[in-house]
Amino acid sequence: MMVDCGENNLRQIVSGISQYYTSEDLIGKKIIVLTNLKPRKFMGIESQGMLLAADHNNEPFLLKIDERKPIPPGCRIK
Fold first, then answer.
1. For 34-53, how does the pLDDT look when each residue is reduced to its tens digit (9 = 90+)?
2. If we measure between CA atoms, which residue out of 17, 15, 20, 48 comes closest to residue 34?
3. C-beta separation of 11 from 51 below 8 A
4. Rounded to whole angstroms, how far apart are CA atoms 42 and 26?
5. What is the pLDDT of residue 66?
6. In this structure, are residues 20 and 8 in contact, taking their beta carbons and an 8 Å threshold?
7. How far is residue 32's CA from residue 73's CA, in Å, rounded to a whole number?
8. Which residues does 39 contact at the CB level (< 8 Å), separation at least 6?
9. The dihedral of CA 42, 18, 37, 58: what is its sign?
10. Cβ neighbours of residue 15 under 8 Å, at least 6 residues apart?
11. Fewer Cβ neighbours under 10 Å: the N or C end of the chain?
């Protein structure tokens, strides 16, 4: 997936959530990602970060921003 992290370009992030979330589920959502990681290849594709998800019964649940509070992409986690 291509993610806007508030930088000049989008970051490519590879994850294994496609069986749980469709592209349409994710478009426009503000998810939490880690970007201070060294890029790694997964399934032959470079990943430039990692999304955060909780695990419940071996199913991922994406951690998202409260959409009632508008914040811009790229805000730091404190």
1. 999 999 999 899 999 999 99
2. 48
3. no
4. 20
5. 86
6. no
7. 10
8. 46, 47, 48
9. negative
10. 1, 47, 50, 51
11. C
25-31 contacts, C-beta under 8 A, 24 or more apart? 26/1, 29/62, 29/64, 30/64, 30/65, 30/67, 30/71, 30/73, 31/3, 31/62, 31/63, 31/64, 31/65
Per-residue pLDDT, 69: 83
* Chain length of the chain: 78
Residue ranges in the chain whose pLDDT is less than 70? none
Q: Give the phi and the psi of residue 3 in degrees, each rounded to 5.
A: -125, 135
Cβ atoms of 48 and 35 within 8 Å: the answer is: yes
Paired tokens of 56: 């419940």
Q: What is the 3-class SS of 1-26, one letter each residue?
A: CEECCCCCCCEECCCCCCCCCCHHHH
